[in-house]
Each structure stands twice: as C-alpha cells, then as structure tokens.
Design goal:
Helix content: over 70%
Order of helices and strands: HHHH
Radius of gyration: 17 Å
Shape: elongated
Structural class: mainly alpha
Number of helices: 4
Number of strands: 0
C-alpha cells in the first residue's frame, strides 16, 4: 500500500473514532475540542483529494456547531460515505494483485 492510501486510512480511522465518541457522549455534549478535530479532519480529507468526504465532514461540523437536530442525520450520511470510501480503497489496493493473478492464469493457459 502506498503512503497516500495509508494516510487516508489513518484519517478515516481517526474520524470513525471521533464519530463514535460523539455518538456515545451525545451530540449535544460535544464541544470545541470535537469541533476543532472535525475541522482538522475536513482539511485533511480535502488535501488528500477526498473532497466528497471533506464536504460531508464540513456539513457535520456546521450542524454540530449550531446544535441542530440535523447532526444525527449528518453522522449517518458520513458513516455511509466512509464505508464506500473504504471499499474503494480496498478495490484500488487489490486491483494490481488481481491483475497479476489474471495475467499469471492467462500465461498458464
């Protein structure tokens, strides 16, 4: 796996941990430390080219900062996005391996 993929996976894991903590503590109980972590992660995802995830993190940040009831929906949307992003990364990582196996199989026949 390349460094960019590993960095992206690290950011995903930190975001998942933050979302779990927010859900466990209650969205209304999250304060400035949580919001600053969200802002930092939003910027990280944007820098890595995961603009859709960055946008969803930004939407969650806004809804949590305004203490709106929309935050719980935004968390669910973000979690779904993270699952899709993980699957895409897994496919991108597996693609060279699968291509090599297919080439090897073709060479045998």
């Amino acid at each position: 796996m390349d460094t960019q993929t590993l960095d992206l996976l690290d950011s995903i894991e930190r975001l998942e941990a933050l979302l779990e903590e927010a859900a466990n503590r209650g969205l209304r109980m999250t304060g400035p430390p949580c919001l600053s972590k969200l802002a930092m992660l939003r910027d990280e995802f944007a820098e890595m080219g995961a603009s859709h995830t960055a946008a969803l993190v930004g939407v969650l940040h806004t809804s949590m900062a305004s203490v709106s009831g929309q935050a719980s929906v935004d968390i669910l949307l973000l979690q779904a996005n993270i699952r899709v992003l993980r699957r895409c990364l897994a496919l991108e990582t597996a693609r060279p391996l699968l291509s090599a196996l297919a080439a090897e199989s073709d060479a045998r026949t």
